[in-house]
Amino acid sequence: MGVGLPAIAYGFSVGLEPLNLLACFVGVFVGTLIGVLPGIGPVATMSILFPVTYAMTPTASIIMMAGIYYGAMYGGSTTSILANIPGEAASVVTCLDGYQMARQGLAGPALGIAAFGSFIAGTASVLGIMLLGPPLASVALRFGPPEIFGLLVLGFTMVTYLAGASKLKAVAMALLGLFLGTVGLDPVTATPRFTFGTITLMDGIGLVPIIMGLFGIAEVLLNLEKGVRQEVFKAQIQGLFPSRQQWKASAAPIARGSVLGFFLGILPGIGAIIPTFLSYALEKRLSKHPERFGTGVIEGVAAPESANNAATGGSMIPLLTLGIPPNVVMAVLLGAFLVHGIQPGPLLVKEHPEIFWGVIASMYIGNVMLVILNVPLIGLWVQLLKVPYGVLFPLILLFCIIGVYTVSANIGDIVIMLIFGVIGYLMKKFDYEPMPLVLAYVLGRMAEESIRQTLLLSRGSAAIFLDRPIATAFLGAAVAVVLLPIVVPRFQAAIGKLARLEES
Amino acid sequence: MITRDRAAALALLLFGLGGTFAASRLTIGDPGHPGPGFFPLWLALALSVVALALLLRPAAAAPRPVAVPAERLRPGKVVLALLATAVYAAALEPLGFVLTTFLFLVFLLTVVEPRRRTAALAIAAATAGACHLVFKAWLDVQLPAGPWGF
User: Fold this and answer.
1) Interface touch B36/A391, C-beta < 8 Å
2) Do the Cβ atoms of A191 and B36 come within 8 Å?
3) ipTM of the prediction
4) How far lies A497's CA from each of A211, A393, A493, in Å?
5) pLDDT tier at A233 (50, 70, 90 boundaries)?
6) Mode of pairing for the β-strands spanning B29-30 and A184-185
7) Nearest-by-Cβ selection for A186 from B36, B82, B109
8) What per-residue confidence (pLDDT) applies to A231?
9) CA A422: distance to chain centroid?
10) Nearest-by-CA chain A residue for B108
11) Where are the domains of chain B?
C-alpha cells in the first residue's frame, strides 16, 4: 500500500463499511457526551468501553476509541462556554472568553466557532498524520533494541520534565510505574515476580484497573469531597453560525492553533492541554488588542479549541508509527491494540493497512459527524448538563466496576482498582502526578525487554549506545532536556512556564 | 512534626526498600546476562534514592493555595463511597449483578448524596435493569448471576 490518494481511498473504503461507520458514530457520540459532562474524562470512558471492543473487529474498536478521544475535545467546549466549567482539562482556556461571550448573548457563535474550529483543526491534523506517518514509520523500521531504549528514555525524560509541580516527584512516579510494570511473569524466563502466589497478579497488574482507579475512582472521590457546583447558562442559544466578521477574526487563529497543536501533540508528555494555553497566549501576543482577551473575544475560543483537536491527531503519530504512546489516552489506545493481538509500530502500515488507513479515514468521517452532532444537538447537551452530580457519580462508579470486572471476570481486579483509586486520591492530595506513573507502567515492559536485549547484544557494555548514531541522538536529546534548563536560564523559564501550565 | 510531603516520601521509601528486598531474592544475573531480578532491583534502588531525596529536602516554603477551604471538604463521603464499593465487590458474586447493583445505587443515592427516596429507588431500579439489558442481554458481557439467575 503506497502513500497518498490510493492509500486514503482504501482507508475510506474501510472507514465507510457499515460496522466501522457505526463504531465511529458511537465513539464520537459517547466522546461528546462525556466531554460535556464534567467529572468523567476520555481516559476513564475508553477504559469502561474496553470490554465492549472484544466482540468488535480490531479496526472498529480502534476507530471507536479514537472517536471518544477527539469527540471529548468537542464536547468539552460546550460545558466551558455554557457553564464556565471545563468539561475536559483541555477546555480550561475556552472558559475565559467562551463564557464571557455566552454572558453577552453570543453563546451561539461561541459554540459554533468551537465546533467549526475543531472540525478544521481535526481535519488538518488528519492530513498531517497521513503525510508524516508513513515516512516516520519507514525510518522507525531501522530501530533495534538500543534505539527503542534510547527513544523510551527520551520519552520518560520529557514526560517527567513537563509534569506539574515537582520534577523529583515525577521521577519517583515514573520509577514506581516502571516497577509496577515488572509484576507478573518475567518476559524472558517466565519466572513469577512479585505475584505473592496469586493468579490475579500472574499476568501482571491490569492496565484497566490501574487507569480506572487513578482516573475514574480517584476523580469521583475528589469531586465528592469538594462538591461539584453546576450553573448552566439559561439564555436562549441562537445563531450557531458565526457571522462573516467573526469568521474573519477566527480564520488565522484557527490556522495557527491547528499547526501549533499538531506539532506539540506529537511530542511526548505534552497531551492536549498545553497547546491550548500556548495558542491562547500566542493569539493574545499577536493581537492588536490584547487587553480585550478574557472579555469575550472570538479568537480566544477559536484558537484553543483548534489547538486541542489538532493535538489529538498529532499524538496519534508516535503510537501508530513507533508503537510508543506519548500520553495516557494513547496508552489506553495501545491497550486496545494489544487486546486484539496487534502491535502498533513501524510495521502497522504494512501489516495492517486496513487499521492504519481505516482509522485515519474514520477521523475525517468522525469530524464531519461531530459538526453534525454538535451544531443541532447543542440543546440536548445543555439538558444533559442539568443532571446533578449526585446522580452522575454512582453511575460513574458503577461503570468503572463493570468495566474492570468484564475484562477478567475477577473480583481481585475490582480490589486493585479500589486500591489505585485511593492511591490516586492521595496522589492528588500530595501533589503527585498520575501521568508519569501510567505512561511508565505501560512502557515498562518494552523498556525492560529493549535494555535486556541491548545488554545481551553488547555483552553488558553500555558503549553500544555510542556506536549507534540514532540511539546516541535520542539519549543526547534526553540529556539536553535535563541539562539545558540548568545551563541556559531562558530554557529554565520556558520549561517552568510549560510545567505551570500543565499543573494549572 | 512530620509534614504531609514527608509522610508521602516515607511511604515511597518503604515501598522502594521493600521492592529492593523482594527483587534481590530473584536471580539478578550480571550486565552481560541480566536475570529476572536485574531490572526491578535497579528500579527499586533508584526509587529508594529518589524517595530519600524527597524525604530529606527542605520543606516547601509556603503551602500551595487550595481551591476549596479545608472546612468545606467532606472526607466522610469519600470513606462511605469507598466502603460501599468494597462491599459491592464482595457481594457481587454471591448476590448476583442486578440485586447488588440496585442496593449499591440506593445506598449511594440515599446516604452518600441524599435525595428523595422515591427518586433514588426509581433511578437505582432503572439503572440496574438497563445495565442488565445492555451488558448481559445485548452485549453478551459476563456478569455474575447469583442464586436467582440474574
Assistant:
1) no
2) yes
3) 0.91
4) 28, 34, 6
5) low
6) unpaired
7) B36
8) 63
9) 23
10) A394
11) 4-56, 72-138
